[in-house]
Amino acid sequence: MQPTPYPEVNEFVTMVWEQQHHVLGESLVGVYLGGSLALGDFAPNASDIDLLAVTAEPVSGSRLRQLEALHARVSASGHPWAARLEASYIPREAIRRHDPNDCHHPSIGETWAFGICHHDEAWVVQRWIIREQGVTVWGPPPATLIDPVTPPELRNAVATLLREDWRARLDNPEWFRQRNFQAYGILTMCRCQYTLAAGAIATKPAAASWAKAAMPQWAHLIDRALVWRHDTQPDDLAETLAFIREVVERND
Known about the structure:
Oligomer: single chain
Shape: globular
Strand order of the largest sheet: 5-4-3-2-1-6
Radius of gyration: 18 Å
């Protein structure tokens, strides 16, 4: 199983898939990689592994407990990617299109423990990525499971995230103290602005390039965000918050 160009990632994803298959059996419909691995801007020293497992029915009861134990084993494995896995388990009926009334599914991430989590409008974006460019680890092509996501749906999802999620983050600036979170916020705003303009999803570098031309007054900040991984950049908290606030307010 070699779904990506990165041997350590392939080794890790294979290990997770094998355990998922052991727990879920015939209920496991497909396993897919999204995020930067799908878009082609994966950075081994910084990116997460975004994984979607599609199931035949909602996971509950003993299987939910078994999945929790599975991820406890993965977390304790010592594998270098174990702490950078973001995985969701969404049933076949729910993955087809975003339904605000059916958006609570098992998930685990770098900053949250395994449990039933709210999959908000960001999963409109994730559906587009996985359907259009997702990497199939195992199962049918993702386009057979996910309906097309239209440009108006993408724009509406991004506008909702800016209005609800990112405005709330501005009220808690401590979240941005870490330089990597500053860079994440800056580059996410670039991608949001691109999606609102184009009705599509771009990689972080492509969206940053577009945003520098569209908002040249912020080009210096965007350039610094692109190289934050080198850990030599100054603290950009005040400018980061100002940039995010401008993007949020212009789309209010």
